[in-house]
Each structure stands twice: as C-alpha cells, then as structure tokens.
Amino acid sequence: MNSAVLRLRPLGIDTHREFVIYMRRDCHVCRAEGFQAQTRVQVTLGKRRIIATLNVIDSDILALDEASLSASGWPALGAAPGDEVDVSHAPTVDSLSSMRAKVYGHRLDAPALKAIIGDVAAGRYSDIHIAAFLSACAGGRMDLQETIDLTRAMVDVGDRIDWGRSPIADKHCVGGLPGNRTTPIVVAIAVAAGLTMPKTSSRAITSPAGTADVMETLTRVDLDLPQMRKVVEREGGCFVWGGSLSLSPADDILIRVERPLDIDSDAQLVASVLSKKIAAGATHALIDIPVGPTAKVRSDEDAARLQTLLEQVASAHGILLRVVRTHGTQPVGRGIGPALEAHDVLAVLRGAASAPVDLRMRSLALAGELLEFCGHSLPGTGHSEAWRLLDSGAAWDKFQAICEAQGGLRTPGVAALRSPIVAERSGYVAGIDSRRLARVAKLAGAPDAATAGLELHVGLGDPVERGQPLFTLHAQAPGELTYAKEYLGTHPIITLGDEVAR
C-alpha cells in the first residue's frame, strides 16, 4: 500500500462549501506525515485534487486505513465510497505573507491582491485565513486603489461574458433593508421594455434572503454559463445565482465566510458588487442605496462615501453607474424571508389588490430610472413607461417566460409553523428596527429554511390596538420558532408611541 493512501468512507457531514477531510489520529498517514488537527492537506484522486482542512478522529468511526470527506468534497473530487485518495501536505501558499501584512495595517499592491484572490478562488485558503483577510480589509482599511485592484483581481480569476451589444443593464441594492425585493420586478419591467438584463445575484450575506434565495423558491437559478446564455438570447434576461457560474468565483467564497462573521465592509461590498457586474458583461449598473437609522447605510454621509467609492471604482473599470438613494426608515413589503418575499413579488407582478404598495412604488421608481439611464426612455418618461409595462401585464408575462425558460415557474411554499406577535399596548408605530427584524427572521430559520421568516402587519405611523398582531413569525422547526421568540423577549423590534410619528 502507498503510505499516503486512504480509502474513502462517507460519514454524511455537511460543512457547507468548506472542504474538510476526516482521518484517524493513529492512522499511518497522520503518523508518517505528522499531521495534526487543522493541518491543510492536499487530497488527490486521479487528476483531481482539493485542499482540505484536517479534522482528526479518536474513535473507531473510521478504520485505520479509511478517511472521509465533508459533503462538498465528494463532488469536487468526483469521489465515490471505496475510492482511494492520496493525502499529502498542501503546497506552500506564498500569498499568506501579504494577507498577514494587511492584518498589520500595510497596504497591498495589485500583484499581492491578485495572488490572494487567486489562491482564494483555487481553494488554497482555509476559512480561518479568509476570515483574517476580510477582517483586515474591513473598517476603512482599504484605500481607493486597493479597492480598484481588488475588484480587478476578482474579475480576472473567473470568466467574463461579452454579449456583443450595448446596453447591458443591471440593477443592485446594497442591502440592509428587509423585504426590499425590487430586483425581480425591475428585471421583468426592463426586459419587457426590450432591454437586455442578464441578472446574476448572490445569496444572503447578512440578511434573511438574497435575490437568488427568493428566486430559487420560484424557479431554477443554478444555471451554468451556456444555459444562462440560452435563456438570455431567448428572453432577454435571466435570474441566475452567481455561485453556479465562474463569474468572480472568489466572491462567492468570500461571501460564504462573511455570512457567519456578519461583516460587509465598503471596500469588499464595492468589489463584490462591481466584479459581478463587470464579469457578467454589464455596461450600465443602477445601484440602490437605502438610507435609514437601522439600515446598512445609516446616514447621508455614509451614503455619499459609498456612492463616491462605487462611482470611482466603476469608472476605473469602464462601467457606467448611477446611484439612487432611497428611504430606508422601515422594511419594504410584508414578507421577510425567501418564500414570503417571493409571494410579495408575485402579488406586485400580477397586479393583485393585496400587493404591497411600497414594494410596487419602489420597483416602479427604480425601473423608470433604469429605462432612462439605459437610453430606452427620454428623461422624465421612464416612470410612466415602467407603470404601463407593469399594469398592462407585459412585465408579468415576461417574468413567467424567463422562469419557464429556466425550468418552470413554481409556487413558493408556506411554513409549517406560524406564531403571531401582538402589541402589548395601544398606540402608534413610532419605529421599526430593521436590523433586529432581519435578525429575528434569521433566528426563525431564514434563509436556509426557505419558508421561514416573518410577515409584517404594520408600518410606521399605523394605529395599533392592544393585542393586535404586529407581525407573524414563520418557521419550519419548533426550536427555531423558540429561538426567535426568546430573542424578541429582550430585543424589541417595533416601538409604539402615543402620537403619530412625524
């Protein structure tokens, strides 16, 4: 037997997308190579190889000649139970010295950032290394040139689409406002107007749902590049999860680590957003920045700083960009969570009487802005054109056509468990904490449980009677419903006053 070979046995351990290998501490490979827990190792099967983090086992769950992989490692290696893998020390990662330099406050040049992002995309960085890099870049520790170079590095490690025409439209919200699911509606209106809009979206980072999470409750979003091209050429637009494509692939890895860290720095946000737009071939990008006391962007000063950074980085990469600042004082729509937000989107597109008015109006405003920005509508006429396309049913028809081209339109599910949260006194809604609202929706299970989250019943200024439901929690598991309620016991979300908020 090769001294570095072990036979694979499945254990059914899910570590999300991080590659982990499990080996007995007393197996011949660990003893011969001096491997310890958390060692980075290279695992080879035929012509495929991955870099994985070692977890050691001190029980007989594995035999001495066996190893196991985390769930994501099996398909990455193309492995099957019983296959023999070669395990060796991982190659030295030279870019870690640059990562450590950033930790100590040094600026990074373009070659250093290119090396770091290249190693991240290749799977050479552990989650610990990625977390250190993200933390070192947060808090305003990256200057403009570093952000430009980081964006370029993230584009360069993946594919880049050229649609051979212009304009290619895109729209993005920087987030921080629960329920603000305008993108599917804007895409439907824009494509119905004749614009080309190949929309790629990320999953949630710090929110209860991302556009990809919402659209996945309605249709297939994990299209590869040829499939995406086919849908766009046929219908003019698409709704695709960026993680299924090789467009700025490092971004999806960084996002996976950002989520548990619950950080989203300006530089990383800008590089993430713009690298995806550039790689997807966008020529015109409309960016929505909600501003509010509990939104991601809390003040006009913060919004101005982020807007300037977005505009400067976009200009350096030759993409036209327009920023729209919107009100972020309260959530949008009623549903918070993938399926609940999908129900709101469908209601707006179908013109249902029950559709959330605020979601409809925000979508129309952004769609109108995009139509004018891309030259489809004359200045001042975009909003009325967007209104016409939505009310005529043209946007709904186009939305259905795109979903059918991607695999069919589904009806979003509903949660098994629901629990109303009622007002303890009468009064008027004086404040809604969007951050805490997002937190409780995540505790209820969103976005991993697609039907989980919460449904709002009141908005700012609304009169409320004692015992009236303020919102309803939705969950799939009793434990998650309990977590959410326990959080609400010490973290009030809706503030009631004696007078109408002005």
Describe this protein's structure.
This protein is of the alpha/beta class and 502 residues long. It folds into four domains: 5-89, Barwin-like endoglucanases (Beta Barrel); 96-156, Transferase, Pyrimidine Nucleoside Phosphorylase, Chain C (Transferase, Pyrimidine Nucleoside Phosphorylase, Chain A, domain 3); 169-246 and 266-405, 3-Layer(aba) Sandwich (Pyrimidine Nucleoside Phosphorylase, Chain A, domain 2); 417-497, Alpha-Beta Complex (Aldehyde Oxidoreductase, domain 3), CATH 3.90.1170. Helix content is 40%, strand content 19%. The chain is built from 18 helices and 18 strands. The chain has helices at residues 28-33, 73-77, 96-103, 110-121, 127-137, 144-156, 183-192, 211-216, 225-235, 249-261, 266-279, 300-316, 338-350, 357-373, 382-391, 394-405, 434-443, 478-490; strands spanning 5-8, 20-24, 40-45, 48-57, 66-69, 84-89, 169-173, 197-201, 237-241, 284-291, 320-327, 335-336, 417-422, 427-432, 453-456, 463-464, 469-475, 494-497. Strands 1-5-2-4-3-6 form a six-stranded mixed beta barrel. The chain has a four-stranded antiparallel β-sheet with strand order 12-15-17-13. Strands 7-10-11 form a three-stranded parallel β-sheet, sandwiched between helices. Helix 3 (96-103) packs across helix 5, helix 6 packs parallel to helix 11 (266-279) and helix 7 (183-192) packs across helix 14 (357-373). It is globular, with a radius of gyration of 24 Å. The termini are far apart.
